User: What shape does this take?
Amino acid sequence: NAGVTQTPKFQVLKTGQSMTLQCAQDMNHNSMYWYRQDPGMGLRLIYYSASEGTTDKGEVPNGYNVSRLNKREFSLRLESAAPSQTSVYFCASTDRVYEQYFGPGTRLTVT
Amino acid sequence: AQSVTQLDSQVPVFEEAPVELRCNYSSSVSVYLFWYVQYPNQGLQLLLKYLSGSTLVESINGFEAEFNKSQTSFHLRKPSVHISDTAEYFCAVTSRTSYDKVIFGPGTSLSVIP
Assistant: This one.
């Protein structure tokens, strides 16, 4: 099993550009999450999806949109990137015993 | 609302010395507690968790944490650290009524000095 995969691993955007971060899991998990990690702030939840077809806002959803394409895939879109969105983005999924499985992350720089 | 505090942002310790990483949480409901570890340039992975039962939980690589309800703490300890333990450690909490949302602490960077 590959677990949780994310693409791309690195990305540099200019202010105002858009992009989509892709995430897929092969563990048949119902719940999937997008976090951002910034120094000294831990992980902050952007959006999550408790099941296929549902999405909910987390702590910091502004400037982002998500799509739960199917049970395996959960994408995060930045419509108009801003320097404040420079961060490391992690996708995660979880099973019924609440352990979260994380992808390797995407390092995004917005100039 | 739930929150997690990790009082130490950085902890340097010599190899083979003991270490304690502190975690305190606030919640008005019963909780589940976790410690995750992040090695450089990797995602987080679960180190150990408390769901119920014994308040002392252990990991396979020698770490342990004790749930203390009266002090709302879940401190992580290891009696003798190795160079390979150098990593970022995150304490996390979720509630039994809202288990889909996990709140992470800001993290503690453990540096093991040879």
Summary: The interface with chain A takes residues 4, 9, 32, 34, 36, 41-46, 49, 51, 90, 94, 99-102, 104-107 of chain B (CB under 8 Å). Chain B has no helices and twelve strands. The first strand of chain B starts at residue 3 and ends at 5.
